[in-house]
Structure formats: structure tokens, C-alpha cells
Design the sequence.
């Protein structure tokens, strides 16, 4: 009985961040911190650069962000953290698709670095154990998050189509 109490206590205490695959750190650096503005020290990455391409850019960077989210499943991050990571990606996508404002936002909202930090902080298995994969329920939960992100994508496309259609129908011909 004492052994069981000790294991429950150990499971609920704060852990040191887990060492994750270097490729995840490198990916988050490439996407969110590759370039530095001299003198100011601000950093931005490929997320902000690729996001400049209308329509395709933010969708492509969201796919990269989902890769980090999938890695979190392998590291058996709790579902509430997966949800938080999905929210970070959703915010990045939703605000990133807004012309000009979204491009500036992308330079400051570093969802990939935030998500890798969450993964390190909340991972429950080591890098070696993560190679065996996550639990089925976590993969299904990831599928639900990706479905919501796809719905955001379809919704943004629909909204853009309706806005363009409205403008075409209500602007006077030149």
C-alpha cells in the first residue's frame, strides 16, 4: 500500500522537462526564429515568410505545426495540453490568414516554439519510449483536433469566397 501511494505521489509531482528529438527543436526554430532583425533582436521564421503567400502559405505552415502536435501524441502529452497546442495552431491560422495584419501577427505569435515548450514540459515518456507511438485514444483526439482545424480552413475559404462574391456583385463596374 505504501508503494502504491509513493507511485501516485511521484506521478503528480512536477517533472523536469523531457528531452525531445532535436528535429522538433530545429523545426520550431526554423518556423519561428530563423531570422533576426539586427539592432532590435526580434526573431521571426519561415512561418511569417511563407504566410505572405495568400491562401497557401498559412495552410502550409499549419500542416508543419500539426506535425509537432502529432509528435506530442507520441510523447503521451495529456489531452488538455494537446487541446492547448491545437488552440495555439488555430489562433496562428485564423489570424494569419488576415491580409497584412496576419502577416505581422505571424512574426510575433510563435505557436511552434510554444508547442514544443509545452511538449517538453508535459511529456510523460522519454524520447526512446516515444518511438513506440502513442495510445489510440490520443490519436483519435488528435484526429478530432485536426478535424476542427480543417473546419477552420474550410470556413475561412467559404468566408473569402462569400466576401469576394459580395464585392463583385455590389461594386459598380468601372
Sequence:
Amino acid at each position: 500500500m505504501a508503494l502504491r501511494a509513493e507511485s501516485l505521489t511521484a506521478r503528480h509531482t512536477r517533472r523536469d522537462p523531457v528531452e525531445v528529438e532535436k528535429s522538433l527543436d530545429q523545426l520550431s526554430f526554423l518556423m519561428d526564429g530563423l531570422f533576426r532583425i539586427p539592432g532590435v533582436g526580434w526573431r521571426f521564421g519561415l512561418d511569417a515568410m511563407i504566410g505572405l503567400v495568400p491562401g497557401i502559405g498559412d495552410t502550409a505552415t499549419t500542416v508543419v505545426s500539426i506535425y509537432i502536435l502529432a509528435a506530442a501524441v507520441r510523447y503521451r502529452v495529456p489531452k488538455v495540453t494537446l487541446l492547448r497546442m491545437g488552440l495555439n495552431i488555430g489562433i496562428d491560422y485564423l489570424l494569419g490568414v488576415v491580409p497584412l495584419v496576419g502577416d505581422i501577427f505571424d512574426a510575433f505569435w510563435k505557436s511552434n516554439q510554444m508547442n514544443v515548450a509545452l511538449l517538453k514540459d508535459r511529456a510523460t515518456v522519454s524520447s526512446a519510449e516515444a518511438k513506440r507511438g502513442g495510445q489510440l485514444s490520443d490519436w483519435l483526439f488528435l484526429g478530432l483536433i485536426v478535424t476542427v482545424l480543417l473546419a477552420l480552413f474550410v470556413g475561412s475559404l467559404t468566408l473569402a469566397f462569400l466576401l469576394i462574391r459580395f464585392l463583385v456583385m455590389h461594386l459598380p463596374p468601372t
Observations:
- Residues 18-170 form one domain.
